[in-house]
Amino acid sequence: MPAENQPLVVAIIGAGPSGIYAAEALSQQSEVPVQVAVLDRLPVPFGLVRYGVAPDHHSIRSIRNTLERTLSKAGVRFYGDVTIGRDVTVDELRSTVDAVIYAFGAGSDRRLGIEGEDLVGSIAAPEFVAWYCGHPDVHPDTDRTARRTAPDELELEAERAAQLVATTRQAVVVGVGNVALDVARVLIKSADELAETDMADDVLASLAGKTVTDVYLLGRRGPAYTSFTTKELREIGQLPGVDVIIDERDLELDESSQAVVGQDKVAARNVAVMREWATRQPSGASRRIHFRFWTRPIRLLGEGRVRAVETERTRLNADGFVDGAGPGETIEAQLVVRSVGYKGIEMPGVPFDESTGRVPHSEGRVIRDGAFSDDEYVTGWIKRGPTGVIGTNKSDAVETVTSLLADVHDGDVVPRHRIDELDALLASRGIHPLGMPAWRRIDAAEIELGHSHGRERTTLAHRAELLAAADEPDDEAGRES
């Protein structure tokens, strides 16, 4: 029998916003005493806040200050550099804790499924974003033993990205969401403007030599159907030395678009912003961002490397789906970035629905073999799909934690374990997790490096750099759980 007031031990796999918001929801309630272990395969926390938000968006990236406060709370512990499925299995983890919450996100990309997509110069937005954000998976160490989890194919994409930006004049970004805007902005901004960010030195060195003059954003639907937030969209029109070019005919709203604008305030604001841009006379700036709506790529052209994108015009059919509406233009381009969505990747030992790219669940309770699992829960993108903004993960996590606490109240989940059982399991495998003291040393090292360059901070992109910064100077082990 568990001791009275014995804490419930909950392991959360993933230290991004969804996982940390789940830890926050657990730590803020007082009905059930808890001990929370937040595990991540990377040496550092914060997930997409660190490695998915563009470095020039300082206000959004500052959310990590709030997330850090949760990881620093009593009863919450960060276990960095621990890979579930490699260091320990899911079943082994479940045997040492009372409940597990999966919060490992959606780490892959969706493909276009068109001819030429595998040409050099065609890359996925998640990999390109990871590259310019300094993700260690795509900035491999010379010593490959330090790369404990990065897939080999990501290294190839990263090397290609660094080479391509220096040899690209025209780029095409397929997609009309905030990530597409981020990619376009990073490609078109001057090196001096990007030097004000915390980008890794390797990335800034590559971007300093870029020669991009034109970026085209392609949307297969009209401007009413974009996924932009208005604040991010407006930023594009405020970039110095950049003309924004939109064909006014693309802004004529059909009946379905009018209905969307009439019901969705964000869509209405976005269309208003773009209509104002369309009235501007080009200033003759040397850099341009072009919006192409009702347009989709049908073929990437080139021999060995992309040289152009063949497009077709589109329209909505009676059922609301996109159909081809005749030939479009052929856009010269040396770089094509597909930004048409993330998708979930299966974690060994965790139920997974290939058709949706998500963990099957109901209100956050994981469904395993057709029934609710006694101790498994899910939150974030791997629960609902890659939708919403960072704040959406908070309400999502609250729903999952509410389900977990209800199950504790009903006696379906009972405190039986202690946190030191997890520590003992990891120690038996020779795994020495990085805790919050290690993160603070990394944080200090990045700030110190940035100050030495006249910047606020500089991201350490290589795993070996992160691990070296994490170690205590006078302690060779230097790694704490």
Automatic annotation (TrEMBL):
In what residue span(s) does the FAD/NAD(P)-binding domain sit?
Answer: 10-236
Which domain of life, per UniProt? Bacteria
What's one GO MF term for it? ferredoxin-NADP+ reductase activity
Per its record, the protein catalyses: 2 reduced [2Fe-2S]-[ferredoxin] + NADP(+) + H(+) = 2 oxidized [2Fe-2S]-[ferredoxin] + NADPH
Entry-linked InterPro entries: FAD/NAD-bd_sf, FAD/NAD-binding_dom, Ferredox_Rdtase, Ferredox_Rdtase_adrenod
What cofactor does this protein call for?
FAD
Residues annotated as signal peptide: none
EC number(s) per entry: 1.18.1.2
Protein family (similarity comment): Belongs to the ferredoxin--NADP reductase type 1 family.
Q: What PANTHER family does the record point to? A: GLUTAMATE SYNTHASE 1 [NADH], CHLOROPLASTIC-LIKE
Annotated protein name in UniProt: ferredoxin--NADP(+) reductase
| The organism of origin for this protein | Microlunatus panaciterrae
List the top taxonomic levels of the source.
Answer: Bacteria, Bacillati, Actinomycetota, Actinomycetes, Propionibacteriales
